[in-house]
Amino acid sequence: LSAIPFKNHLNGSKNPYAQYPFPIKLEDVESGVKVADPLHILDCSPITDGAAAVILTTVDIAKKMKKPYIRITGSGMATDTIALPQRESLTWLKSTELAGQRALQMAGRKIGDINLVEVHDCFSIAEIIVTESLGIFKPGTGLKAKGHPVGATGIGQVVEIVKQLRGEAENGRQIKGQPKVGMTQNMGGSGASAVVHILEVA
Amino acid sequence: MFPSRIRREMPQRYRLEASVCKKCGQRYYPPRLVCAECGGRKFDTYVLPEMAKLQTFTVIRTPASQFSDQAPYAMGIVKFEDGVQMMGQIADCDIDKLKIGQEMRLEFRKIQADGSHGVLSYAYKFIPKWY
To answer: What region does A11 belong to: left with phi over 0, alpha with psi -120 to 50, or beta?
Structure first.
């Protein structure tokens, strides 16, 4: 569990827009203030002020812009009960699983086609359950170090994927091998609603 | 918590009333207006039993401000014999000795006070059986 914030801070230390852009030690996680067992303070994303924006337009107009454009090829949404005791499983996010399947179906993609993903890793355990529910391993940066300005987080994820797909990520955090297909997963109400998008290089 | 909400939730919080869908038999606590399984809108009311089994729990060590005088305290999800699950605080216990699978008794307890002049809200808490 502690390896998750360790990894996210390491990646986040290279992000010039991160709220806490510095690496942490594994011991720092385990010696931090306890919030709710087994989560310590560094397992929890911070309270953040932030903003993010994207420009949405048609392909025709996008072609006239000077920057390479990114297409939204899939969008999926699903809901679940907000009350955890009423869910089928406490260790699975069914809304995320369904939203992921719907987005992939719309894009005509398989989960193996995804080169990178930004997930709603508001707590370290959330990253584990979300990636398991999507069926993917996530190397990304995360909300822990970047910050979690709740209303801006979803678009913030899109901005990061767009940078990576354009090959514009700063400070040597650009993913190697020219990623072509990215995914974002956002959720609210501990997964009562989940939205997944597939973004692709045009 | 708003007084109107306390009043509205009295049947479930004070009397532990749950509902069962007349069409498909799905059981709900707290009661619902529409069945999530079949869309049915007619329910029978029944009262939950006093005993349930602990399914999972956590210990809150950094609480919300209205519960700061109670920390550290345990929050758990319990399951009744008919499959209904609910979440609540586990009281009167040694938090280091809690175990998943333990039997819990439901007791009527004070949950929080809305300042010194506001309405007190009551509901259930779970008490480990040996206490």
So the answer is: alpha
Phi and psi of A193, rounded to 5°? -135, 145
All residues of chain A having their beta carbon less than 8 Å from the beta carbon of residue B36 are: 81, 86
Pair of tokens at residue A131: 């990636």
End-to-end CA distance of chain B: 30
Q: What is the 3-state secondary structure (H, E, C) of A68-134?
A: CCEEEEEEEEEECCCCHHHCCCCCCCHHHHHHHHHHHHHHCCCHHHCCEEECCCCEHHHHHHHHHHH
* The pair of three-digit structure tokens given for residue B25, joined into one six-digit string: 């038999």
Contact with chain B for residue A79, Cβ under 8 A? no
Kindly give, in sequence order, each residue whose CB lies less than 8 Å from that of residue A60, ignoring residues fewer than 6 positions away.
Answer: none
A141 pLDDT band (50/70/90 cuts)?
low
B18-52: pLDDT as tens digits = 999 999 999 999 998 999 899 999 999 999 999 99
Residues 6+ apart with CB under 8 A from B79: B52, B53, B55, B85
Interface probe, candidates B9, B68, B77, B90, chain A, greatest A C-beta count within 10 A: B77
| Count of residues in chain A | 202
CA B128 to chain CA centroid, nearest Å? 14
Per-residue confidence (pLDDT) for residue B82, from 0 to 100? 87
d(CA B49, CA B33): 22
- Residues sharing a CB contact under 8 Å with residue A56, sequence separation 6 or more, in sequence order: none
Q: What is the DSSP string of B50-79?
A: SEEEEEEEEEESS--GGGTTT-SEEEEEEE
CA distance A119 to A28: 23
ipTM given for this complex: 0.81
Residue A138 pLDDT > 60: no
